[in-house]
Design goal:
heterodimer; A: mainly alpha; 10 helices; globular; B: alpha/beta; D-Maltodextrin-Binding Protein, domain 2; ten-stranded mixed β-sheet; two-stranded antiparallel ribbon
Chain lengths: ~230, ~270
């Protein structure tokens, strides 16, 4: 119990003293994860909607695979992206390994199936409700998808926040493709792993509390800006 | 939805700007794969700013086990490696992945264990004698088991002791030095560590340094530039300048002068050319 309290006070101390190294790794964590969430949403949300309104062969199999990919172990994704971006790999000439871009690519692969699966689930229910109306209005396929995405935006926001949650706390993949280089690719989770390996358990836990506070702050900001979860809105 | 995306984009670009502000300029950036023991010793924090001041090179460290460090070098993903496993290093050179091997410094391994020392290794005559006592007592022993330099050294010592470590008392965990020390601390087990990682370790619990000093425990670090003929994109020019610095007088003073709690950790032994 003493260790946990000590971790909590370490977290407070780090935040109020404006430790520049801490703010640097927070900024890197946000940069990587928010970019990954945007990219994954641009792919995952339309993909989920498209799967909900289209009937085609192997649809069930496609959806099952997408759902299963939600459980992808990050270390496996990290290895895959490493072998892709390594100098000896097919995309080695780009020189992206051990850069924030490599970390973003890994996180996009990890969270796109999650965002697409939750989006598909939400849009499918909405589609069942809107089907007759949209068909009778003779809406084109693109118009249908746009309508469903807009009217399902609250559920889609949840999909994006779930993606954010998985990405911000991820360590296995970004450790491999980012390398946790100080002042370059170190983020909160890899800093926690490093401090744990040095036996500085309280300090590592303190960084963990900072990570949780950061996730709460981002979620609150998004809810405030998008006007969800207000008293007047149910 | 658009507002949410806009809000996210705003946050991301703010974070981007904050990070961009820290990106430095200079002679260039060199990526070097180093072992966890080098990083955990804290010596890197002393050397890197001095290297930057003297040569202008930004050295970026990728901290991994020796096995993975050599793998990164063979793939051309780093410009140089600083590791400690002689046989694997010589194989690396023979395969043409590195240009040459330059010895820089050494430190030593120590045997750590519970302070009541159930296997009685503290008055052992040699490192192999200590390991034989641990095996005879079937006392819990945590092994790195990760193909790192430290792990390779440990296996060499078991072999020299004529023991094939097996059984429930021998616990390979497949993780780094810090994780192995954390595990040993939690199990009250014996473990072999490099001296630097042990002295810098913050979670010692009931563990103590029980045996050290046998020359068989010496741990030689060597610098290997990755072969630019195999990987044209590696910064061999920077690697050569870094090697010159690492083997020079400034590095000698810093390495020999580095102390934790009054104890000297590393001995500079590069031969000047």
């Amino acid at each position: 119990m003493d260790g946990i309290l000590e971790g909590f006070s370490q977290a407070l101390k780090l935040i109020v003293t404006f430790d520049p190294d801490l703010y640097e790794i927070i900024a890197m964590s946000l940069r990587v994860t928010l970019t990954a969430v945007i990219v994954a949403s641009l792919i995952g949300l339309p993909l989920g909607a498209w799967l909900a309104v289209n009937r085609f062969r192997h649809r069930r199999l496609t959806i099952a695979v997408l759902n299963a990919l939600m459980g992808l172990p990050p270390v496996v994704v990290g290895l895959f992206v490493y072998l892709l971006l390594s100098r000896a790999g097919p995309l080695g000439v780009l020189g992206l390994l051990f850069t924030p871009t490599a970390m973003i690519i890994a996180q996009v692969i990890i969270i796109t199936p999650l965002i697409a699966s939750i989006a598909h689930q939400a849009i499918r229910d909405l589609w069942a409700e809107y089907h007759d109306l949209l068909i009778s209005m003779n809406a084109s396929r693109a118009q249908r998808i746009r309508t469903l995405l807009w009217d399902g935006r609250r559920a889609l926001l949840t999909a994006m926040l779930a993606g954010f949650g998985r990405a911000i706390g991820e360590v296995g993949a970004i450790m491999i493709v980012g390398g946790s280089i100080e002042h370059s690719t170190r983020v909160l989770t890899t800093a926690i792993a490093l401090e744990t390996s040095k036996g500085n358990l309280e300090f590592a836990l303190g960084l963990g509390f900072v990570l949780i506070a950061l996730a709460v702050a981002v979620n609150l900001t998004i809810h405030t800006l998008s006007g969800t979860e207000r008293a007047s809105t149910w | 939805m658009k507002r949410v995306l806009a809000a996210l984009a705003l946050l991301a670009s703010a974070a981007l700007a904050a990070v961009g502000a820290r990106a430095g300029s200079g002679a260039g950036t060199l990526r070097m794969a180093v072992t966890t023991s080098f990083q955990n010793s804290g010596l890197a924090d002393v050397l890197l700013p001095e290297i930057k001041a003297d040569t202008g090179i930004d050295v970026q460290l990728i901290v991994v086990g020796t096995g993975q460090a050599l793998r990164l070098g063979a793939a051309g993903d780093v410009d140089a490696v600083l590791v400690h496993a002689r046989t694997a290093e010589e194989e690396f050179i023979a395969d043409g992945h590195g240009t040459h091997r330059r010895e820089i410094m050494y430190n030593d391994f120590v045997l750590i264990g519970p302070s009541d020392d159930p296997a009685g290794i503290s008055d052992s005559a040699s490192a192999t004698d200590a390991l034989q006592r641990i095996a005879a007592a079937q006392a819990p022993f945590v092994s790195r088991g990760d193909d790192s330099g430290t792990h390779k050294k440990e296996l060499t010592l078991w072999k020299a002791a004529g023991i094939d470590p097996e059984g429930s008392w021998y616990r390979p965990i497949g993780a780094g030095m810090g994780a192995a020390l954390n595990t040993a601390s939690a199990m009250n087990a014996y473990v072999m560590s490099d001296r630097a990682s042990w002295l810098n370790f913050g979670n010692k619990g009931g563990l103590e340094l029980l045996f050290a000093g046998d020359p068989a425990l010496f741990n030689q670090y060597a610098f290997i530039p990755v072969n630019p003929q195999k990987h044209p994109q590696v910064r061999n020019d920077l690697a050569q300048r870094l090697e010159a610095w690492l083997t020079g007088a400034r590095a000698r003073a810093l390495i020999d002068g580095y102390r934790i709690g009054g104890e000297k950790l590393f001995t500079f032994n590069a031969v000047s050319r």
